[in-house]
Amino acid sequence: MDFHKFDTRRWRKLDIILDQVLELPASERSPRIHELCGDDTDLIEDVIAFLNDTARADGFLEKPAGENAAHLIEQSSRNWDPASRLGGMIGPYRLVGILGEGGMGIVYVGERDDGQYNKSVAIKLMLALGADSPLRPRFLAERQMLAKLDHPSTARLLDGGITDDGYPYIVMELVDGVSILEYCDKRDLGLNARLLLFEGICAAVEDAHRHLILHCDLKPANILVTPEGQPKLLDFGIGRWLDPEEDGPGADRKPSRGIMTLAYASPEQLRGEPMTTASDVFALGVVLHELLTGTRPWDLEDLGPSESATKVTETPARRPSTIPTDPRRRSRLKGDVDAIILKAVAPDPRQRYGSAHELAEDLRRHRGQLPVEAVESSPIYRFRKLIARNRAATLGVVLIMMSVIAGVAGTAWQARVASHERDAARLEAQRAGAVSEFLTDLFRSSDPNENKGADVTAREILDRSLEKLDDLDDQPELQVALQRTLADVYSQLSLYNEARKLYEDVLATEIRLYGPEHYLVTDSQINLGITYVELSRYDEAEAILQKCYDIRKNQEPQNSEWLTVPLRSLARVADHRGDEQRAILLFEEAFALLTPEARTDKDALGRAYNNYASALSGVGRFAAADSAFANAEMYWLEALDPDHSYFGSLYSNWALTVSELGDFPRAEELHLKALAIKRKLKHNKIQIGVSLINLGNLMVVDGRPSEGLPLLLEAVEINREAFGDNHFYTAAAVMNVGLAEMALGNFDAAEKNYREGERAFREIFGGEHAAVAIAHTRLGQAARQRGNLDRAEQILREAIAIHRPLLPSQKHRFAECLMELGEVLIEQGKPGPAEAHLDEAMGIFVETKGPGSKEARKTRDLLAGLAP
Amino acid sequence: MKSQPDVTRLLIELQGGRREAFQSLVDLMYDDLRLIARRHLRFQGNMITLHTSGLIHEAYLKLADRTLLSWEDRGHFLAVYTKVMRNILIDMARSRLALKRGGDRVKVTLDEHHNKIEAQADELLAIDQALEKLALIDERLANIVECRFFAGLNEVETGLALGVSDRTVRRDWIKARTILHGLLDETRVEPDSGN
Question: Does the pTM exceed 0.80?
Answer without folding.
Answer: no
